[in-house]
Automatic annotation (TrEMBL):
<dbReference type="Pfam" id="PF03917">
    <property type="entry name" value="GSH_synth_ATP"/>
</dbReference>
<feature type="binding site">
    <location>
        <position position="310"/>
    </location>
    <ligand>
        <name>ATP</name>
    </ligand>
</feature>
<feature type="binding site">
    <location>
        <position position="129"/>
    </location>
    <ligand>
        <name>substrate</name>
    </ligand>
</feature>
<feature type="domain" description="Glutathione synthase substrate-binding">
    <location>
        <begin position="206"/>
        <end position="307"/>
    </location>
</feature>
<dbReference type="InterPro" id="IPR014042">
    <property type="entry name" value="Glutathione_synthase_a-hlx"/>
</dbReference>
<feature type="binding site">
    <location>
        <position position="379"/>
    </location>
    <ligand>
        <name>ATP</name>
    </ligand>
</feature>
<feature type="binding site">
    <location>
        <position position="455"/>
    </location>
    <ligand>
        <name>substrate</name>
    </ligand>
</feature>
<keyword id="KW-0547">Nucleotide-binding</keyword>
<feature type="binding site">
    <location>
        <begin position="368"/>
        <end position="377"/>
    </location>
    <ligand>
        <name>ATP</name>
    </ligand>
</feature>
<dbReference type="InterPro" id="IPR014709">
    <property type="entry name" value="Glutathione_synthase_C_euk"/>
</dbReference>
<feature type="binding site">
    <location>
        <position position="148"/>
    </location>
    <ligand>
        <name>Mg(2+)</name>
    </ligand>
</feature>
<feature type="binding site">
    <location>
        <begin position="401"/>
        <end position="404"/>
    </location>
    <ligand>
        <name>ATP</name>
    </ligand>
</feature>
<feature type="binding site">
    <location>
        <position position="463"/>
    </location>
    <ligand>
        <name>ATP</name>
    </ligand>
</feature>
<protein>
    <recommendedName>
        <fullName>Glutathione synthetase</fullName>
        <ecNumber>6.3.2.3</ecNumber>
    </recommendedName>
</protein>
<keyword id="KW-0067">ATP-binding</keyword>
<dbReference type="Pfam" id="PF03199">
    <property type="entry name" value="GSH_synthase"/>
</dbReference>
<feature type="binding site">
    <location>
        <position position="457"/>
    </location>
    <ligand>
        <name>ATP</name>
    </ligand>
</feature>
Length: 479
């Protein structure tokens, strides 16, 4: 492997010990006091918060690539919208996968049942997040890691990262550098989408429902959305219910309204439902199906959810596939450039060739199942064993992807219970760009880019889930 380049830090490192201790203590309190916080997993209490892991100063990121990713977002929104509405494409693309992946099959069954029964609502709301790593082997150009169409999180907390790190930069006497840190409009952008969908539903008394996990560790991120909506629109109520509660309390009215007790639901925002563990029994699947049949505008609707699977991402990266969904050749070219190699592992000639390729040079790849939420992938040297344990047909539940090799930045990662003073460590950052799209099959009401998030992990970790404990929230310092 080529030697990893190191990006220039925003200020010279290390910071003198006394200054570092002082500024870290202040930054932690700033984070808690501004809601850059989460519930503890190890010491859970719904009465307390810990600050969310964060990077003390903004991590360097190539400006040109940041701008490129932002400018592409509306095209990606439209692409995902078109994919979600292409029944034939979703069906053929997922055909082999649903035979062996039970979770995707369950989602697909919901989709087929709703198709047969008729959609209660033609409009869908997409709050998307397209994730990127800069790839050092291609001049640090951004490559798409994945696109999330369900529960795209951290828009709320991320909005507070630039102010947190600006505070730190000022404390350190570098206020002049704040101009290299872009503003972030993720929270207002994402909530604006939900409010717009609520208006489209046009029922002044109806509420927005957040479908949540049994325990919400990432509570602040969700509350930011809820409180922002209430602040902008004192007339809109937000309810929070688990899938189990929706099953118990929910029913459809005479015009397919989703009714929860005394409330009619205008918009359903899923912050749960993206992993098998969220469905404890058939009840939760029944609840999902009922919601999909309802008149409420779903974020995402089931077809948007399926459009966000890794298998669909892999299919879209095949030559000429984008032409099915995008007509402008310039746009096709621009989107094509952010794809890295993605390979099917179906039991086909191409699939078997990728299998052989993975066994031969595993360190070039990442192996991914149809799952969300981090911690599910297999990397490098672990790939051959994982693949050999699968039957030919079982491999169709997975895709293979080129390993993206990002440049390193240096900085301090601040975690609850972490060392004081913190040490300078090697980091890599993943950029997420949020997008909002609202429309039906042939009419898009709004489509915009909605801010960003930067999540940074130790360069030695394969994955950087913030909740999982390896990653930290961050914001970019544009070089
Ligand atoms: P999830 O839906 O679970 O978040 P991802 O595809 O985003 O799945 O993978 C999780 C993490 O794994 C990413 O955040 C990134 O850190 C790492 N990762 C995924 N794909 C690649 C890749 N092609 N190259 C390098 N790292 C990757
Ligand atoms: Mg994901
Ligand atoms: Mg991800």
């Amino acid at each position: 492997m080529a030697e990893t380049p190191i990006l220039e830090p925003c200020i010279p490192l290390p910071i003198a010990e006394r200054t570092l201790i002082d500024v870290t203590e202040k930054a932690k309190d700033w984070a808690i006091m501004h809601g850059a916080a989460m519930r503890s997993k190890t010491n859970f209490s719904s009465d307390t918060l810990n600050f969310a892991p964060f990077i003390l100063m903004p991590s360097s990121f190539p400006r040109k690539e940041f701008e490129k990713a932002k400018n592409l977002q509306t095209i990606i929104n439209q692409l995902m919208h078109n994919v979600a509405h292409d029944e034939e494409f979703l069906t053929t693309t997922l055909a082999e996968t649903v035979k062996v992946d039970e979770f995707t099959a369950n989602l697909f069954n919901v989709y087929k049942k709703v198709l047969a029964n008729g959609f209660g609502q033609a409009y869908s709301l997409g709050l998307l997040r397209s994730d990127y790593l800069a790839h050092m082997l291609e001049d640090n150009s951004v490559k798409q890691v994945e696109i999330n169409t369900i529960a795209s999180s951290f828009g709320g907390i991320s909005t507070h990262m630039m102010p947190l790190q600006s505070f730190v930069m000022s404390e350190l006497g570098h206020a002049d550098k704040i101009k290299y840190m872009p503003e972030n409009t993720a929270l207002s952008g994402l909530c604006g989408g939900m409010i717009k969908a609520w208006e489209v539903y046009a029922q002044p008394k109806a509420v927005i429902l957040f479908v949540i996990e049994d325990i919400s560790y990432n509570i602040c991120d969700q509350r930011f959305h809820e409180f922002y909506i209430r602040e902008q629109r004192p007339d809109i109520k937000v309810l929070r219910r688990t899938l189990t509660e929706v099953h118990k309390e929910g029913k459809l009215g005479p015009n397919k309204e989703l009714l929860l007790g005394e409330y009619e639901v205008a918009v359903i925002y899923f912050r749960a439902g993206y992993e098998p563990l969220h469905y404890h029994s058939q009840n939760e699947w029944d609840a999902r199906y009922m919601m999909e049949c309802s008149r409420a505008i779903k974020c995402p609707s089931i077809h948007y959810h399926l459009a966000g699977t890794k298998k669909v991402q892999q299919a879209l990266a095949q030559p000429e596939m984008l032409e099915r969904f995008i007509s402008d050749p310039e746009k096709i070219k621009a989107v094509g450039q952010i794809f890295t190699g993605l390979y099917s592992l179906d039991d086909s000639e191409a699939g078997n060739a990728s299998y052989e390729m993975a066994l031969k040079e595993p360190e070039r790849f990442v192996l991914k199942p149809q799952r969300e939420g981090g911690g599910n992938n297999v990397y490098g040297a672990d790939i051959p064993d994982a693949l050999r344990k699968m039957s030919r047909v079982e491999r169709a539940a997975w895709i293979l992807m080129d390993l993206i090799q990002p440049p390193i930045s240096k900085g301090y990662m601040i975690r609850p219970g972490g060392k004081s003073p913190p040490e300078v460590v090697d980091l890599v950052s993943e950029l997420g760009i949020f997008g909002v799209i609202l429309g039906d099959v042939d009419n898009v009401i709004c489509n915009y880019q909605a801010g960003h998030m930067l999540r940074t992990k130790l360069s030695t970790a394969n994955e950087g889930g913030v909740a999982a404990g390896l990653g930290a929230l961050d914001s970019p310092y544009l070089l």
